[in-house]
Task: inverse folding
């Protein structure tokens, strides 16, 4: 984790230097200040998967996003929300994505929750087995990015 923080500091410094030079570079995590990030993410969970976004599998099934289209038997079909012929047919499953903000129990206690959307639901599911619980590494990545935005390049206190 210390190595990650140290390397991200180098990325931050490189990014700041290139931005000052007017280079056409963009790193989304560093493009907004903390207030902008808080305003954008404080009442959001995950992304718009299953809400305004969908992915279509080769057999015409609808999924919340491309990351849920799977060939794994334990996941296949679990998050299928319908198909291209009938549209959204499993509204109960779709509501899991619409109501996720209130189910982020681990995140509700986190001081960084206002800067984070709770991780990608598909990544959460694949790594923790729970749509609403981000893996510890995602939390660490958020902490590092917030510290960089908060303190500039002073990340020594992160670890």
Result:
């Amino acid at each position: 984790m210390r190595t990650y923080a140290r390397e991200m500091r180098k990325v931050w410094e490189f990014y700041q230097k290139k931005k000052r030079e007017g280079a056409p570079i963009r790193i989304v995590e560093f493009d907004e200040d903390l207030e902008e990030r808080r305003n954008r993410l404080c009442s959001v969970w995950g992304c718009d998967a299953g809400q305004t976004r969908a992915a279509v599998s080769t057999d015409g099934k609808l999924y919340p996003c491309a990351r849920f289209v799977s060939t794994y038997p334990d996941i296949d079909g679990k998050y299928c929300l319908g198909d291209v012929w009938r549209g959204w047919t499993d509204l109960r499953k779709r509501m899991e994505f619409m109501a996720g903000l209130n189910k982020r129990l681990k995140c509700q206690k986190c001081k960084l929750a206002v800067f984070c959307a709770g991780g990608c639901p598909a990544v959460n599911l694949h790594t923790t087995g729970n749509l609403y619980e981000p893996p510890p590494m995602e939390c660490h990545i958020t902490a590092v990015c917030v510290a960089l935005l908060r303190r500039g390049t002073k990340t020594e206190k992160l670890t």
About this structure: Residues 2-20 form the longest helix (19 residues).
